[in-house]
Amino acid sequence: MKAYENIELWWITGAQLLYGGETVKIVDGHSKEMVDGLNNSGIIPVKVVYKGTANSSKEVEEIMKAANSDAKCAGIITWMHTFSPAKMWIKGLQALQKPMLHFHTQYNAEIPWDTMDMDFMNLNQSAHGDIEFGHICTRMRVPRKVVVGYWKSKEAQEKIAVWARVAAAVADAKNCRCLMFGMNMNNVAVTDGDRVEFEQRCGYHVDYYPVSSLMDYFKKVTDEEVDALVEEYKKSYTIKIDESGEEVYWEKVKHAAKGEIAIRRVLADEGATAFTTNFDDLGDADIKATDFCGFDQIPGLATQRLMAEGIGFGAEGDWKTACLYRSLWVMSQGMAKGCSFLEDYTLNFAADCTSSLQSHMLEVCPLIAIDKPKLEVHFLGIGIRKEQTARLVFTSKTGYGIKATIVDLGNRFRLITSEVDCIEPKPMPKLPVASALWIPQPSFEVGAGAWILAGGTHHSAFSYDITAEYWEDFAEICGIECINIDKSTTTCGFKNQLRNNEVYYMLNKALK
Q1: Does residue 273 contact residue 329 with C-beta atoms inside 8 Å?
Q2: Mapping DSSP to helix (H, G, I), strand (E, B) and coil, where does residue 275 land?
Q3: DSSP state of 58
Q4: Across-strand partners of 147?
Q5: What sections of 237-274 are H helices per DSSP?
Q6: Among 8, 263, 299, 325, which lies 20 to 30 A Cα-Cα from 160?
Q7: pTM of the entire predicted model
Q8: Is 440 helix (H, G, I), strand (E, B) or coil?
Q9: Rounded CA gap, 241 and 26, in Å?
Q10: Mind listing the pLDDT tens digit for each residue in 216-267?
């Protein structure tokens, strides 16, 4: 079953009529077989739809314009079966507004040395045609991914699958609305930025949403609805009543459930798939009153559960990370290990294992938990509500991971990624929060230093499942800078890369 039911990728084969109508029929038959092979591979999660062979400038332009206007089309895959004169692609490429992948492949795997004749040569000119097509794309500065390999090979199909997931995430971003419950907090620069340019580049639409309006929903939640959700909690998590005592525990869990129901309804009614919170703005409440009209606690439990269902989240008004997490969840649908919003919290300068503890006050997604999360209630002494607060507590999986963030540098957005090795933390009996512990590649000193040099944030969208290739494709499609920190990173080389990128983007802006 496909993970992305409502989208598709369009396959367009390039050819020409020079070699006669029978050749065109053969090209068409080969193309259909290849598309069927990709769809039946079980590797590419988005359905590929064959849209025919383009033999003229008019045909190319018509297909590209049709792709632009079709909401289901998330991207275009092009392949040149024969020699396809590139000038016939100009108008279509000028019109195209969807992501594009250029597949440099060939119908036959090997050259039939004993039987090959001129007819075979004329028909199978992918080596010739794809280079011609690549030239015009480069001359026109068309952003695209180029995948090279035989169409039946697992390696080539996996490359297409990466791009397909990213194209799905980009399509989703164009329809993503992020609500800010309260605004960006405490004069923090790194979590703020240019929301207008952000939407122009990546598609995300970010709106302020009054907490007072959220409270209107909150007041209308019934006790019966709360009780039903609490029963769901009991089935999903390990119930752990600690120092708060049973009476306080269930009171706070019920209040957390009420907050979750309210937030869900606002997001549904507003058509939003991401949100931020501000723990200094939780509604006008007398928390001592029986009928309080605001959150008596930070809605951390609601946030954890919503993230697990794909709702983007950023703490303290961090709308960029909220949107990025939404895209991360979309591109990693069906993958095994999970993703989460995380924050760099505290450092462990241990001689044998210098590392960074990732957590947050409450808001870490249970998708990355190694075991069944525990539902706990503990005092939280930060923000406007210093109260007993419900949250899911767990430790995260070990293994490879990658964190990502977007920063606004004034003249451009920079997507920063860092590959990390997640390790097992020691017990923290007095810190009842969800957490992860990792060592940045290639070492803590180099990896953490590079992140700071790049201007990275203390918040990130983290995944165990995807690789830097996904984010590179995402940045390419959105037209933003992308820089990765991995095992090959050196401080000197990284500084040079940052300097070169700065010159490139300054000149690029000046030339425009």
Answers
A1: no
A2: strand
A3: H
A4: 103
A5: 246-270
A6: 325
A7: 0.94
A8: strand
A9: 70
A10: 999 999 999 999 999 999 999 999 998 889 999 999 999 999 999 999 999 9
